Amino acid sequence: MAGSTFGKQFKITTWGESHGAGVGVVIDGCPAGLSLSSEDIQLYLNRRKPGQSRFTTPRKEDDAVEILSGVFEGKTTGTPISLVVYNCNQKSKDYSEIAACYRPGHADYTFDAKYGFRDYRGGGRSSGRETIGRVAAGAVAAKILKELGINLTAYTKSIGDISISTLDLAEIANNALYMPDADAAAKASAYLDTCMQEHDSSGGVIECIIDGMPAGIGEPVFDKLDADLAKAIFSIGAVKGFEIGDGFLTSFAKGSENNDAFFYDENGNVCKKTNHAGGILGGMSDGAPIVLRAAVKPTPSIFKAQQTVNRSGENITLEIKGRHDPVIVPRAVVVVESMAALVLVDALMENMSSRLEHMIEFYNS
Amino acid sequence: MAGSTFGKQFKITTWGESHGAGVGVVIDGCPAGLSLSSEDIQLYLNRRKPGQSRFTTPRKEDDAVEILSGVFEGKTTGTPISLVVYNCNQKSKDYSEIAACYRPGHADYTFDAKYGFRDYRGGGRSSGRETIGRVAAGAVAAKILKELGINLTAYTKSIGDISISTLDLAEIANNALYMPDADAAAKASAYLDTCMQEHDSSGGVIECIIDGMPAGIGEPVFDKLDADLAKAIFSIGAVKGFEIGDGFLTSFAKGSENNDAFFYDENGNVCKKTNHAGGILGGMSDGAPIVLRAAVKPTPSIFKAQQTVNRSGENITLEIKGRHDPVIVPRAVVVVESMAALVLVDALMENMSSRLEHMIEFYNS
Amino acid sequence: MAGSTFGKQFKITTWGESHGAGVGVVIDGCPAGLSLSSEDIQLYLNRRKPGQSRFTTPRKEDDAVEILSGVFEGKTTGTPISLVVYNCNQKSKDYSEIAACYRPGHADYTFDAKYGFRDYRGGGRSSGRETIGRVAAGAVAAKILKELGINLTAYTKSIGDISISTLDLAEIANNALYMPDADAAAKASAYLDTCMQEHDSSGGVIECIIDGMPAGIGEPVFDKLDADLAKAIFSIGAVKGFEIGDGFLTSFAKGSENNDAFFYDENGNVCKKTNHAGGILGGMSDGAPIVLRAAVKPTPSIFKAQQTVNRSGENITLEIKGRHDPVIVPRAVVVVESMAALVLVDALMENMSSRLEHMIEFYNS
Amino acid sequence: MAGSTFGKQFKITTWGESHGAGVGVVIDGCPAGLSLSSEDIQLYLNRRKPGQSRFTTPRKEDDAVEILSGVFEGKTTGTPISLVVYNCNQKSKDYSEIAACYRPGHADYTFDAKYGFRDYRGGGRSSGRETIGRVAAGAVAAKILKELGINLTAYTKSIGDISISTLDLAEIANNALYMPDADAAAKASAYLDTCMQEHDSSGGVIECIIDGMPAGIGEPVFDKLDADLAKAIFSIGAVKGFEIGDGFLTSFAKGSENNDAFFYDENGNVCKKTNHAGGILGGMSDGAPIVLRAAVKPTPSIFKAQQTVNRSGENITLEIKGRHDPVIVPRAVVVVESMAALVLVDALMENMSSRLEHMIEFYNS
Fold this sequence. Notes:
FMN (chains A, B, C, D), 9 helices, Chorismate synthase, AroC fold, five-stranded antiparallel sheet, lyase (chains A, B, C, D)
């Protein structure tokens, strides 16, 4: 049952329920010597916190992170980093209806089927608040990657059938939807307004690009870099699809179209003319940018009446009340980026012992 | 670097290169008491072995499996099951060209980048022959699932842009492409003939349906059942995309369309009117059939001339010779089914200790 | 570097430094449905907290535990249990001397050798306070074991060369040394008084007996029950030796003396006439009580002058000041018990899927 | 149940039963570029093979190892190394008596208790032949260590109450008991002759010294270097006790006696005047030789009549026939050395990513 730990070398364990005392994460295996402050982490958490726009719940949570261990005199010590965000906004509201029924599209029924009962307050462990631990840890991972010259950029690629047509990275932070295309963001906003008026919600797609990965990272068989990314991204609640590079389009392609031709650049480095592979060949990075995408389902909490069942054996009609985002995508952008960062740091650490000559150099010099 | 082991309770470790002495797998953690013979495993291996149709390499390999340990008097003992397939058809051909260059779409360059050199004969460890160990282990996992009333059915959903329009399971074994639609199979065969004439190859999509899973299997956070399936399927060489249920289509959907309504059936069981979720909610099975899909890229080995580089720093034109499948999909169908079976058995084993009352019942009765 | 996680199914991750904000543990994989309150845990923590007798540091710490997650309406939910003890008594004293030198018998030098620097305040991560997380988790594990009819009893077997000669379990809680022999406790107390007068410290031996384990628990090869216990107990800071059953005495024995004869008792159960094996055969429990022992070295912090080095390349004489226990053993008794409990719960959970017939029964009934 | 895999980075999985087709091991995670031949491995296997002296079973097994994968052109490739020793000497003898009863001191009863039945031929999976896989993998690990300047020397320290009084390493290979003291070896041989005449067996102690370990290797909390060594050595069938450095003697010592004083040597290296700690402080190597000891119980198979039970519910008298070593110790010497080597390589690989500055150096240079 132990499923709240992720990673092998850079290992994180998240804990906490939506309406418990708080949520948090322990990072075990962070290399010593990284400068780290709570501000570094807060910047990431702010990207997912609610109340930022009309498309996120008006719930006001500060989501202020505290570092409880593992940092001394401003640097990581190599020992576990414990990060906590206390829950401040747990209203003592009446959860008896949610407690008694299974909301469509939620994990209510499956939790009960597994454990016999559940913490039903605000989604409990399957609440989006669980991702706070992931993002806090991802901020640390991303900072390590930056020191190694590796940068991640995630953004909203589409909402409903409105997709970006430019990739203007500077625009991402300018709109509430984190889209790198101001036009598309405007159209998507209008579409979401309609969804909200209809008491409905929308899905979308998140894309993440990783620059600067050296070639040869990842393990060739089960622990392929793309397989680990797939698991990481698919472990985010609402994700229903994952792609690397051309993804599902490769199923329509011919080999002559899909293969990326190698060439030597002026510095004698191996490069590729195209990047259909999305930066990974045979489960290892090939030096080109890694490109991944996640399909995110529409928020299951909608205000339309829905057919469902209660725990007493009755078919019922449910009308969900309260405050819910009409789209999960924008707040999940930083979660995707965080999970990708965790996978990359882990793979880079693991890779250091892949050649005997490197071990000899490391220990005998 | 240890990346050839998969699973936690039902743990498999594959080994072997295309042109070494053989390929194999050790299954550690198989429950005791399962009737098992080499025939059980051979049936699965035969579904991926070459030489079955004009769309697979004419290479004749028997791929005959031997059980070296873990089975006594016809039953598994609970100790490791070692399975081996000796390589019989390693021609002592000249590999100097492949050794010297990096084939587009292959792992040649990334292997070299990681390890400094590679076993270049026939793709070495990144050869499709590595999947023999997966399928042999998958056959054992599938047999356990069958004892529990769980059945997996994988098939080719599309090749290029030719997709099935019926789901006639009886038809799957009738055509060389493992398509559950005779018409689509005929069209796809014609399309592949064209690809071969053009010295090219095609991608496609594999789908797998799992019936009979009880609800509540899988862990709610990182080790979600769909996340583990994503990793399992993405660890297969040519896979570039993965979906559960409606997958990428959910990104276009509204919540009211995508949510599956619950109801009680006549026996008082919780059921769903639709299955957009593909049988998994919050990372745990919901009792509906699990539906997953994998996008498979076109075979990278094509006979058209391609631009690439050699290890001596030169840009070259490569013309691959030899024998290669024009499409990976049909032989990968049983690999997808096998990887899914491995994930499910593992999750079912892990789940047994999720409630204290079950532990008390198990040990105190 | 990730070395702060222990266990496979019942997995714990500890965090925290002696003089940081606090210390804690996350338990991932605790079965759902266990009644659990902070009092259950506090009882265990109180057995290791300082200030209980003249043989423990007079430092006054309440070590009050808080449950931050994983418990709902008084029962564990199956999700991670986060436990924290805030540090209240971190005096802002001057650590410059300890920071600059390597104390003999401590981890100062090895921490620096590994990480390049360390949190030197009060021992940092290698402080005895790290065991608070272990004991908090051990309390939960022990409560599960009790529900299964399994009980652990740990006590001080010897201090210096004063060893118990009776095993009066009722006496354990009556003396500050946790010895099951009032006479031995009195003699050991006098001996410790002498050590303190000499500004010195003493080692000792802890023994733990586990009753009620069913037979067949543990895995036969690397994850033997005794091997996992060995690792668990040896991971406690000051432990330098570990034994099961007759332990090192078996090296002097003959097979005819050391073998335990089996017989059937009046109820038809397989029993053993003796228990030289200490309840484990071939790595699996044999139904007899499990008996283990740990040798604990003397407290390395002594007030006598000692030769050592500083970080500036000089040989120096060190006189440690402050407050230190003259013996580690009594406070480590509950740590040994906790680590043993963690191993047993894990093994019991893992064992549930060892037979196919049990899986079929579990899922098909 | 998956307990046949050991190690995290350098991960081995053993398989095979005494009287099955063979025994073997898969090494996953061996660094690429190590020169490796079957002779390297055979040298280690020869140290444990039977028929070497009158104190080992006269059974003649060649135990010839074959490398099936992972080595190309004489060097490891970084992919799994599969090693197999086929069983040549499985006599089709009558095992009905052993099948029906539980031998004292063996795992017969516990195997049945766990799995419901067992492969009873020659001990099945709990046979000493299982260690062939460990030794084969240990040979590879030891070769890596040698490249890093680290050497392991294991030997027999005592048999019964005859202990070595000198440490003449050159003598180890000169006597059948692997004792570094010719006198002690002669006395122990005479003692074993007596044991054999009495149809009995003897226990003993194995010691292993490791030179050349750099300081700072191992993880400070649960995965302490000594904790991992404890588990590794305790996972060997007949081991009942484990010590590091002064071990159980530290329980009698005072802090002033047990602490090792640090000093700077002429080259400015941190050294210790004594080595009571056995080369490990706070779970990390301190640069001094690592010294460990294992207590090995007497061979449980003795020819004296013994009381036991059969599977039909009867108390019986058992007289074991066949061929058995009167002492396990000499053949286990190389097993101890192998297990220690596996732990050290793993810890050295894991340690490479413990500092950010090392990662930056590795990837940015």
